[in-house]
Amino acid sequence: MSGVRVLVGTRKGAFVLTADAKRNHWDISGPHFAGWELYHVKGSPADPNRLYASQSSGWFGQIIQRSDDGGKSWHQPGTPPGEPTTTPEGMPKAESNKFVYDTSPETGKPLTTHQWYDGTAHPWEFKRVWHLEPSLTDRDTVYAGVEDAALFRSTDGGQTWQELPGLRGHGTGPLWQPGAGGMCLHTIILDPSDPGRIFIAISAAGAFRTDDGGQSWRPINRGLHSLYIPDPTAEIGHCVHHIAMHPARPGVLFMQKHWDVMRSDDAGDSWREISGNLPTDFGFVIDVHAHEPETIYVVPIKSDSEHYVADGKLRVYRSRTGGNEWEALTKGLPQSDCYLNVLRDAMAVDSLDPCGVYFGTSGGQVYASADAGDSWAPIVRDLPPVMSVEVQVLP
Amino acid sequence: MIRVALPYHLRTLAKVDDEVQLEVQGQVTLGSVLDAVEARYPMLRGTIRDHVTGQRRPFLRFFACGEDLSHEAPDAPLPEAIATGAEPLLVIGAIAGG
User: Fold this and answer.
1) Which residue from A198, A237, A302, B54 has the fewest beta carbons nearer than 10 Å?
2) In terms of pLDDT, which residue wins out, A79 or A98?
3) How many CB atoms lie within 10 A of CB A210?
4) B23: CATH
5) Is residue B25 part of a domain?
């Protein structure tokens, strides 16, 4: 019988939640990597038992963890103990937690600085991995979105990482600025119909697309309007919080921007607002129903000055019309005295029928709906603050 | 035999319960001791000092024999008590966080 596995990253470790296809009785395992920040945990579509996790700490930096058995055991996919840490030529080996920006003369020359909060030039400094996106077809290939914003790729199961420098080097990189959470590349979407096409998003630079597998990139922010930058319709500088795509319609993108929920029907070439009747269009998460490409979900947050839900009510909003017309989903969710946030990578959908929807909160709850959002129940209530939620359907 | 006391999270990563004990070839310095730690426990590379610059990570300090050795040069000899194993080199994480 099929089942689901929910991968939860929190401020103090990772948790793996499993259930059968009915999705009403859950087993909880964890914390894995107790005490560390787990920005993201995600499984390979090519091999569901291959999981990647981003483990980090202000003290000890970035660690990449890998599981080959669905999260039962983990290891750092770098040099095993006992093996030389230098190459036969005497050079230090690359390691699974070694993210080094490309500064080669061909690509690195214009990449030396970005803008700091005060507008001055600031060198790129690697801080952490926000998002891991495994390849759709190869379990050993995985992309990493990092802070300070750049895109890295591993083709050896996370043992070594190489930057795709065309993103930072396409021209606007020296003008990118961090948001308050850091200058992070937090969204990576691989187009299932075109192996060369990748979408990424950066706070607070905007959305970008490559059509040649990551060699060349261009901003795709036309139609975005942001009042916190000098030119509200500038080519870059928009604080895109998250983007979602339905795999059957890869040209249609849905975006939760800092403020505004947006939609593109031309792979990001242009965007239009679809906030409609939402009580507030500030928020972080956005996701698409697994079987209905026009059904989308957001969790409106009161404002960028008050990072919690409006009116003390935790409400998921669903549009069945691709935006503009939204309904509040409240059954099973707290409707008084609730002041939670839901972060950008903390919502996921499963591909069972009916579609399951999951999200995690800053209060440590992970909620699940086994009926496409009509009703909700907590899987677990008291985890550390949730940073990311992903779900896998298991055979 | 050199003794090195690691903070909790690095002991977990290295899968050790207690102080680690290492042979160090040549002069006993911060650099040679950390080289030996990373050779034995490659999963700790990058967690104590930066992969590229070799600089100590900002929230870590090195103490030994009642002294703060954090700002010693990587090739400066460590105290005799460290070299003989009478005292451990302590890798200390900043006391902070929530």
Assistant:
1) B54
2) A98
3) 21
4) 3.10.20.30
5) yes
